[in-house]
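To make the argument concrete, we let one protein speak, a sequence paired with a row of structure tokens, as a model reads it:
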Amino acid sequence: MTEQMDQSAARTLAYQPVQVTGRLAVGGLLLAGLAWLVRGVWEMRLAVAGEPASGPPDQGFGVHRPLNSLENSYHLVSSAGGVVVFLCAMLFLSWLTRLRENARALSGDTPKYAGIWMFLGWFVPVVNLWFPRGIVVDAFRSSAPGRRLPVSVNVWWGLWLAGMLTGVGIVYRDSTDRIIERAYTEGWQLLVSDALVVAAALAGAFAVRAVTAAQVERIRAGQVADAQVAEPV
């Protein structure tokens, strides 16, 4: 009996507190969505104002003209959004790390993807098209075998890819001045991309909640079963 109680306690200690990190990740995603919504509003303002007669901020050959007040404020909005997105990424990765460790403890299996891909998987070309989703899916299936993958996971990833492939998703290469130029010349494309990013953030929040709930349910069911076994007859 003592051995069974010790095994139950060991399993309990092996689980990482995923609920708090899940809530923080949800908050980070919603905040990132809000930041991108504000960014979209500023891009709409730029599109309505129209490009100044002096041309785009980056005039080529290393020449940059002085920015007007609206362009300066967009730089501030963009910088603030970058800070929020970085915070969101850290919270999401913290949640994903704990989710993955709990999945390993629940299943006893080695995760399908090496730990380094939780970070590099977002940036390495080609593999970034499916590795991040694959890590979440692998953790979910190890945590809740036989259960259907939440629809929100696929919706989140589809929207994320759509936003990324437009060239102005959360991870983008254009400079802020180049984005301002695009707002003047192709504002509707930027707004579509912004809408995809905001929708991806919302769907991601639902996905984190659903995956976390499935794992917590499995952990609690195991703890209840262990408690019943440990009860004296």
Remarks:
- Strands lie at 58-60, 63-64.
